[in-house]
Amino acid sequence: MHSPLLEQLIQSLRCLPGVGPKSAQRMAIYLLERNRSGAARLSDTLALALDNIGRCEQCRALTEEVRCRICSNPARNKSILCVVGSPADLYAIEQAGSYQGLYFVLSGHLSPIDGIGPDDIGINELMTLLQQNPVEEVILANNPNVEGDATAYYIAGLLKDQNLVISRIAHGVPVGGELEYVDGGTLSHAFNGRQLLR
Amino acid sequence: MHSPLLEQLIQSLRCLPGVGPKSAQRMAIYLLERNRSGAARLSDTLALALDNIGRCEQCRALTEEVRCRICSNPARNKSILCVVGSPADLYAIEQAGSYQGLYFVLSGHLSPIDGIGPDDIGINELMTLLQQNPVEEVILANNPNVEGDATAYYIAGLLKDQNLVISRIAHGVPVGGELEYVDGGTLSHAFNGRQLLR
């Protein structure tokens, strides 16, 4: 039905997350009919990014430099390290704007059922970094789900003999949410982690 | 927050229809972290498609050949021409599988409010084609909305002195739908266009 090259383009667009056959066809037609300059820019930038963007040698965030802008920023507090599960989590924390320490980006979380162990997500590199650059506190900001919790507890276990503070970001009710719609697990965490007002 | 090249990639991905800043960031991270081979294939295919895919000289469908596979297929019925508003509409009709004639693909529909007139959507080329390759019937399959109807009536007006059948695809209740949820305009069309059973 499609010409062979158009079909190939539609199949290539399906490598994008969340893009099925209908969206891929819509994207291909839109790019070819309406936005050829945008498509050319996308093709070039993608090739350039693949050639140049790698991981920061220190925190493993995505960057085209040897060391990312956060790790090489002298204004950041080098005594706190925040461990996250993906670059997207790092950007979310940066966007919130309140954290001023350094990061370490794991490649996802432990998931024995999928065969993903400590070596696969970069925990060895984290341990090496902590030996070479000792910090005062490690904040475990892994996702608040089973895999994230398991990864956080695993890292806490590895670090328990070292002389540093290990913390986990708080679980509780999201700001602006309504209690009525919060799930039971979150509510239990919110009660267990309640803060004294006076 | 993002490295400059990563930011550039995220901006480039936003040229895709339906992709906002969050989806673009998700796509960029996914491609760089999880699917570099897919991303490289996408970059190459996109460049190849932009260089090679143009419009069929006869029906204006997207193709890398001079004349598309439908126009150059001797088995198609050359006495019927179906006019559609975009290549996606052509693919939808082909997928339905019941139409065996030729097509002509307009670039959208008339929309005087947006400054889109007959010259902009290819109606001149349609008239030239019909002069050079006379047909017995023109089926106007423009979208069933205000712009599509206006375009269909405009084309019908241009062709009224020629000796050919001009038809418009039927408006009515969609197959598999429930009357309860069909809008009033569609129901009126369904009643006006009712078919005699005997």
From TrEMBL, chains A, B:
Task: Report the Pfam families cross-referenced here.
Answer: RecR_C, RecR_HhH, RecR_ZnF, Toprim_4
Role of this protein:
May play a role in DNA repair. It seems to be involved in an RecBC-independent recombinational process of DNA repair. It may act with RecF and RecO.
Q: What is one process in the GO biological process aspect for this record? A: DNA recombination
The protein, known as: Recombination protein RecR
Q: Where is the Toprim domain?
A: 79-174
Q: Which gene encodes it?
A: recR
NCBIfam families in the record, alphabetically? recR
**Hey, which family's this protein in?**
Belongs to the RecR family.
From the broadest rank down, the organism's phylogenetic lineage runs: Bacteria, Pseudomonadati, Pseudomonadota, Gammaproteobacteria, Pseudomonadales
Q: Show the InterPro entries listed in the entry.
A: DNA_Rcmb_RecR, Rcmb_RecR, Rcmb_RecR_Znf, TOPRIM_dom, TOPRIM_RecR
**Mapped zinc finger ranges (C4-type):** 56-71
Q: Which GO terms describe its molecular function?
A: DNA binding; zinc ion binding
Q: SUPFAM superfamilies, alphabetically?
A: Recombination protein RecR
Keyword set, alphabetical order:
DNA damage, DNA recombination, DNA repair, Metal-binding, Zinc, Zinc-finger
| PROSITE patterns per UniProt | RECR, TOPRIM
Q: Which domain of life is it from?
A: Bacteria
